[in-house]
Write a structure and sequence with these properties.
Layout: H1 2-21, E1 25-34, H2 38-45, H3 51-54, E2 65-68, E3 78-83, E4 87-97, E5 101-110, E6 114-124, E7 129-138, H4 147-171, E8 176-186, E9 189-199, H5 203-221, E10 228-235, E11 241-249, E12 260-265, E13 268-277, H6 282-295, E14 307-310, E15 324-330
Antiparallel strand pairs: 1-7, 2-3, 3-4, 4-5, 5-6, 6-7, 8-13, 9-11, 9-12, 10-11, 10-14, 13-15, 14-15
Length: about 325
């Protein structure tokens, strides 16, 4: 027993020393250009009453309980939230300089207690303005090892939020509706697809090119299909590259060039999330799917790649508000 306790003691000392050596500080910031004045951008963001419409977290859980104090404006105003997927916490206006910057403090309660400094900056451009959203903080001692992951994690959320702010200001609406269907099944199907690798930031343009090639194949081989898909083989926001295959289901054999591949996607049990809206905001649905996976303590089946189904044709339904997508994350 003494030997066992001694080994445990050594392990704890090594772990403690390792944590002491880690820099637990993090600083995340993202920016976006918006076709508007600094005044209008500041007015939207400084009012907590507007946050539910563009929050990258509340869009996942519309039923989360949100409370706003001091009419949502000015120093001391607080926006607090409690939800199953979004956890709980609050954010407070600490200092504001009209049309220039906002300083805030965010205090998380769940999933773990921590606090960070949040800031917004508004810079006039030749055409419009640049909005910068940032966060500075330090991870709790025993979570210091997660500090490096905060940059891509929070950065991804900030990018989603800034895209929604841009649409809210420029279009007066955000085409993003999420329905968490829970655990569902997807039947096996045969397919033809084209494989691509690109930077995460270039997925949209890369996929547009991929489906251009797929559509050409469908026309030449008379392939009829009611939906299309993308399978994500490598899709990690903490890494720069994305590898995916985009294609259509097959009802019969086809002849195709070497750039295409035929395969069978297996039948799966999966977490399903339905999305209605612009593909630009599909990240909201993926965030909701993975948040639900963690909340329900489900285990992803990493032997099968997640898949995205496009249930109507954007070349025929030209209004992005009506585009329908279903996301499936295979589970064990």
């Amino acid at each position: 027993m003494e030997i066992v306790l001694g080994i445990i003691g050594v392990i704890l000392i090594v772990a403690f020393g390792w944590l002491l050596s880690i820099n637990g500080n993090y600083h995340v910031k993202r920016s976006i250009a918006v076709d508007t004045s600094k005044e209008k951008a500041y007015q939207l963001i400084s009012d907590f009453n507007s946050w539910r419409s563009w929050s990258p977290w509340l869009c996942m859980e519309a039923e989360a309980d949100v409370k706003i104090s001091n009419n949502g404006k000015g120093v001391g105003a607080i926006n607090s939230w409690v939800g199953s997927l979004v956890g709980s916490g609050e954010i407070e206006h600490i200092a504001l300089k009209e049309n220039e910057h906002i300083n805030q403090q965010i205090r998380f309660i769940k999933p773990f207690k921590s606090k960070s400094d949040v800031y917004w900056q508004f810079k006039e451009l030749e055409s419009g303005c640049e909005i910068t959203w940032g966060m500075k903080g330090a991870m709790p001692f025993f979570l210091k090892f997660m500090a490096k992951q905060m940059e891509p994690w929070i950065g991804m959320d900030y990018e989603r939020g800034l895209k929604m702010i841009k649409d809210q200001i420029e279009k007066g609406k955000i085409d993003s509706e999420i329905t968490i269907n829970g655990v569902d099944e997807l039947e096996s199907f045969n397919y033809v697809a084209i494989n691509k690798t690109c930077l995460m930031a270039d997925v949209g343009s890369s996929m547009k090119e991929a489906f251009g090639q797929i559509n050409t194949l469908c026309e030449s081989e008379s392939i009829e299909h009611d939906w299309a898909f993308s399978i994500y083989h490598q899709f990690d926001f903490t890494k720069p590259d994305c590898n995916y295959s985009s294609g259509v289901p097959l009802k019969h054999e086809v002849e195709c060039g070497d750039e295409f591949k035929r395969g069978i996607y297996p039948g799966i049990k999966a977490v399903k999330v339905s999305f209605k809206g612009d593909y630009e905001h599909l990240g909201n649905a993926w965030a909701a799917a993975y948040s639900y996976l963690r909340y329900k303590k489900l285990k992803a089946n990493k032997k099968i790649d997640p898949i995205e189904l496009y249930l109507n044709d954007p070349t025929k339904e030209t209004d992005p508000a009506n585009w329908l997508t279903a996301i499936y994350i295979p589970i064990k």
